[in-house]
Automatic annotation (TrEMBL), chains A, B:
Enzyme class: hydrolase
Designated name of the protein: NAD(+) diphosphatase
Record organism: Sphingomonas morindae
Similarity section: Belongs to the Nudix hydrolase family. NudC subfamily.
InterPro entries for the chain: NAD-cap_RNA_hydrolase_NudC, NADH_PPase-like_N, NudC-like_C, Nudix_hydrolase, NUDIX_hydrolase-like_dom_sf, NUDIX_hydrolase_CS, NUDIX_hydrolase_dom, Znr_NADH_PPase
Name of the coding gene: nudC
Length: 287, 287
């Protein structure tokens, strides 16, 4: 169990100033202490329960992103065209849950989101021309039209609606058997966090909410969401479930949620995994 | 002065289900009650202090986005290739501040972010091919590689650090004369809201903060930010200003902030405009 949300707490100085200084980045790359994240595609190569790291290749042809500085060393990741795995493997999630320290999981998340963005954004959305890596891997530039493009971070609201001491939980078709979690959805252009929470709960469950409260946030590197966890109070408990989004939803009592979190054999549902902010949200609600 | 953050409160049912149903969108477009947002480029055409609306063109060649339903009418916006004005005119900001009702300004913000995104994302970032409008204007699809692309919403943290009863305010080089505001920066891949607040304050002002608290959020349609307002407590008040980002910064007392908000002739600075969430943040801090 994490005290802080999963994928937070990377022990990383992002060295923002260096990104604007190619000579400084070159010096950091040439530093014998510098290390390259060891990956197989987008999967981390683990050594003794920690992220694996390799010497940094010095050839010009290898595009690298400067992750920053961690444990005294410059840290890089290779930007490999075509390496993209939008999905996450069960093996990876088990590794993140059971084996890697939280800081390593968070550092891996930074690298994964960045590498995946480059792999899927090699062309200019404005004119279609091939783009080039800029700012030590934190942007791409189009040599044809001059547009600059920056890594996406997609804000997502994830929330528990409460009514009469019970919490609304739902399951998506792709969830593991028995799992229920907080409802969630992408924030759209032109709405606040609070408006997105109200809209998503209305669209997916047919409920109207008020008293929306922010709880916590986490980055989610599959591929690059910013998860924003909230609670809200429902005006009534009649559900109208959008079956395109949810397979099922129900109002869980505190006792049911506590039994699920405790892993009771007769629990009504399986809770979200510990690295997901939904777990923190459900746990805090259960008190 | 708005009670709610600027650009929130659009009286809009986004009709999410309709976006997935082309026949329903066609029926909404053919509805004689349907209206098209009146624009000159990206600037709104205002009638009697309200957004202007036109009959909806029925020709197939005009690409429209379904904004949703408002005041009983289907509402559309035309997607005009090449119409892009990343900058905002002083006339537009005056209009949003002084003339349009808050709900109209919010509805305009939805349309502006969406139109601007289409205008700058006509090509597939994954393969470079021209893309097509999908989901009634809420996505684009690539006919070559099959990738789907969704409108960007870029989360930004904006925050006041407090130390010993004073608030840290700064000014960027492009600000109007005398204006100081909360510091701000984009959330990056692999960090939480709280981590972004701490990093930005450290990068821009050289301070270390704790006790970060979420305050409120707003959409910012220039072009499509999600502004996330927070407060934090600084460990000490020594500043190391990043002159690439900030022209100046200082610790303002509550009396100085109140004088600025009251428009006192001898105020030390000009506050952010009322539609910006920085204004709400500063006002709440001043108490």
């Amino acid at each position: 169990m994490f005290d802080a949300p999963g994928f937070t707490g990377a022990p990383l100085d992002r060295c923002d100033a260096a990104r604007h200084d190619p000579a400084l980045v070159a010096a950091m790359r040439a530093d014998p202490e510098a290390r390259l994240l060891a990956l197989d595609g987008l999967e981390p190569l683990v050594e003794d329960g920690r992220l694996g790291w390799l010497p940094v290749p010095q050839e010009d042809g290898v595009a690298l992103a400067l992750l920053g500085r961690s444990e005294g060393r410059p840290r890089f990741a290779a930007l490999t065209p075509g390496v993209s795995a939008y999905k996450r493997s069960p093996e990876l999630m088990a590794l993140l849950l059971d084996e890697l320290p939280a800081g390593d999981a968070a550092l891996y998340g930074v690298a994964r989101s960045l590498i995946d963005w480059h792999a899927r954004h090699g062309f200019c959305a404005q004119c279609g021309h091939a783009t080039e890596v800029l700012r030590a891997g934190w942007a791409r530039a189009c040599p044809a039209c001059g547009a600059q493009h920056f890594p996406r971070v997609d804000p997502v609201v994830i929330m528990i609606a409460e009514h009469d001491g019970r919490a609304l939980l739902g399951r998506q078709p792709g969830f593991p058997p028995g799992r229920y979690s907080a409802l969630a959805g992408f924030v759209e252009p032109g709405e606040s966090i609070e408006e997105a929470v109200a809209r998503e709960l209305n669209e997916e469950a047919g409920i109207t909410v008020e008293a929306i409260r922010y709880v916590a946030s986490q980055p989610w590197p599959f591929p690059a969401q910013l998860m924003i966890a909230c609670t809200a109070t429902a005006r009534d408990d009649a559900l109208r479930i959008d079956t395109h989004e949810l397979e099922d939803a129900f109002w869980a009592s505190r006792d049911e949620v506590r039994a699920a979190l405790a892993g009771a054999p007769d629990a009504r549902f399986q809770p979200p995994p510990a690295y997901a902010i939904a777990h923190l949200l459900v746990r805090r609600w259960a008190g």
